[in-house]
Design a protein that fits this description.
By secondary structure, the protein is α/β, with parallel strands linked by helices. The chain folds into 2 domains: about 260 residues, D-Maltodextrin-Binding Protein, domain 2, CATH 3.40.190; about 100 residues, Periplasmic binding protein-like II (D-Maltodextrin-Binding Protein, domain 2, 3-Layer(aba) Sandwich). α3 links the parallel β1 and β2. It starts with a helix and ends in a 9-residue tail after the last strand.
């Protein structure tokens, strides 16, 4: 049994440091700190984008790839390579190393990336989505007791074996919940989504915090039960888009082009008529997920007592007040558990200027749309 929650948080902080930023230690500091050359304004550019088709809240990246929306806006002759990251920390490391220029990720890695400016200048430029149950999901093993509400389920996790992918948005969520509720797991394991799946199948885990669509797949396959979400404890989550600072400074034309395409992607996602098309793109870009599970993860409904919400994903696009509040709150929390060394991000770590300008030019306001929860009967795949 861990001695106390402070011990738990210190261990988690050390694991996060290993998962984000310092994993770029295989690259020399001079190589990672040097600015990259992106050419002159208007030149064709070769972009490498880290994205997460296995993270529903950031599926605008899936739509961007599937529909090639960027081709409408980038300089003629430009190329885009999409690289999959199973969690945000992997994308952060690639961006720090100069191997990726744009990254789609959850709130925790997006924030931590901006604090590694001695390695590389990375900034948050847009919001991919805001929700309560896209990243923030609590699952328990099937033979756990039947709980009458989410709070009872969370209290049951005291003294139990809990797993999360550390350094990811679920890590921040789980630690925040445990601090609020005074929960001390006997073990707080660092496991990726594949190992968590195996752990539930083998009966080695009591509980886990995991994002969509893996949460829906585990429930659908009968390997675990969902018992709570961020809605249960008033802890929201967010998907964000980070860019390297040298790209922003040298090629504002490319930044604006990409974000115009991103706005198109979010508008496409927000239209209920496109739900199945989005699911089909996600199915093509992932393995091991059925259309039904992907649909459930994106727009399916969950009972309120298990953390269900009316809005599955809010397409905020810019850094709205809600998004900024999440970033600021999470930054303070990450500092409190010694994951980062600051409790306030540097002045240019968050850059809403591009998205705000685009919204004004296109006569739109944020959020640009919402994906609403639908009953299972609405699935027509």
């Amino acid at each position: 049994m861990l001695r106390n929650l402070k011990d738990l948080k210190q261990r988690a902080a050390l694991a996060v440091v290993g998962a984000i930023g310092l994993a770029a230690g295989g690259f020399t500091s001079s190589a990672t700190a040097a600015e990259l050359d992106y050419g002159e304004i208007g030149d064709p550019i070769n972009l490498v984008v880290g994205y997460q088709p296995y993270y529903t809240e950031a599926w605008s990246g899936v739509v961007m790839k599937g529909l090639k929306l960027y081709e409408k806006y980038l300089p003629e002759g430009s190329t885009v390579e999409f690289q999959i990251g199973l969690q945000g920390g992997i994308i952060v490391n690639a961006m720090l190393a100069g191997k990726q220029h744009i990254g789609y990720m959850g709130d925790m890695p997006a924030i931590v990336a901006t604090t590694k400016d001695r390695v590389a200048d990375i900034r948050i430029v847009a919001t991919a989505g805001l929700a309560f149950d896209q990243c923030n999901n609590m699952l328990v093993k099937n033979d756990a007791p039947e709980f009458s509400n989410a709070d009872e389920a969370i209290q049951w996790m005291n003294g139990k074996v809990v797993a999360v992918p550390k350094g990811a948005c679920t890590d921040r969520f789980a630690l925040a919940v445990f601090e609020k509720k005074g929960i001390e797991p006997s073990s707080y394991l660092n496991q990726n989504i594949e190992v968590i799946t195996s752990g539930f199948r083998a009966g080695k885990l009591d509980a886990a915090a995991i994002w969509e669509p893996t949460a829906s797949r585990l429930v659908h396959e009968g390997l675990a039960r969902k018992v709570a979400s961020g809605k249960s404890v008033d802890e929201n989550d967010g998907g964000f888009i980070d860019m390297r600072g040298d790209l922003i400074d040298q090629r504002p034309d490319v930044v604006k082009a990409w974000l115009n395409a991103e706005l198109d992607a979010q508008l496409f996602m927000a239209d209920p008529a496109n739900a199945l098309a989005v699911v089909e793109m996600a199915e093509e870009q992932t393995t091991g997920f059925s259309k039904e599970v992907l649909w459930k993860a994106m727009t399916g409904s969950t009972p309120v007592e298990q953390g269900g919400t009316d809005v599955r994903n809010e397409m905020a696009f810019t850094i709205t007040p809600k998004a900024r509040d999440l970033i600021e709150k999470a930054t303070v929390f990450l500092h409190s558990i010694k994951t980062i060394k600051v409790d306030t991000l540097r002045d240019n770590a968050i850059m809403p200027e591009f998205t705000e300008e685009i919204l004004k030019e296109r006569g739109l306001t944020a959020p640009v749309g919402k994906i609403l929860a639908q009953p299972d009967s609405a699935f027509k795949g």
